[in-house]
Amino acid sequence: MSLFFQLVVSGLTTGAIYAALALALVLIFRATNVVNFGQGEMATFSAYVAWQLMQWGAPLWLAVLASLVVAFGIGIVTFRLIIRPMMSAPVEAIVVITLGILVLFQAACMWIWGAEQLSFPSLFPDRGFDIGEVRVLSSAIGTLTILLIIALAMGFIFRFTRLGLSMRAAAFDHARSVLVGVNVERMLMLGWGFAAVIGALAATLIAPRLFLSPTMMTPILFYGLAAATLGGWDSPLGAIVGGLAVGVAESLGASYLSFIGADMRIAVPIALTLVILLVKPVGLFGSYKVTKL
Questions:
Q1: In terms of DSSP bridges, do strands 134-137 and 128-131 run parallel, antiparallel, or are they unpaired?
Q2: 273 contacts 229 by C-beta, under 8 angstroms
Q3: DSSP codes, 233-249
Q4: The pTM is what?
Q5: For range 74-79, the mean pLDDT
């Protein structure tokens, strides 16, 4: 039984990273109805910025904080220069554009820093403690704590601040928000900035485990997409729950379903997502849109 709980702890830790990336995807989707396939590569670029600052002598935490500021700027610039001019384009065109963002940032990382895998230090000490026979690492506690802080901060901003309420209004109905004085374009731009910051945090947390490389976040993006689909694309809470569920399902499935093997472990959360969608197509916390005729 201790193996089961050990796998759950490991799954929750990894799932917290999936949840952070899924939350970034959901924030952008709620605001602009765009699934940003380039979110992972934008986050990778920010992680490279943190690594570069450390090479220049900056302390780890200062480098990470500075990279988050850069990530915020990247999100805003990406929206202003690439997404905003194409807002009225068909969905198919938007999908191609976000794939172009993926390729653009991946190529930029490779051009500036090369394709070699780089070591990235962990934000947390390499220690842990035992609960019975289950080993809990400080990185697990730290990763889950960061996810909790992000969730509480986003919940507070969107529920109790004028900025958050304006962002929710702009995401819900662009036309009517303009009538009550909301600067919709500015709110959407800030939404892309906040999403880029959350994505950058996810990249910073996963980089010590995967090594920093231009394609580091590509497989993580698929887990993030599965988490957002499982939780519901219009629900930040669903993104968090979906990410944790995907992480635990992957951890348990890879160990108990030995015939799958490590290379096919992604099939477990995808199968779980398909089963949930057969029962509730909008995801666990997604809502149906009602159209009045």
A1: antiparallel
A2: yes
A3: TT-HHHHHHHHHHHHHH
A4: 0.88
A5: 93
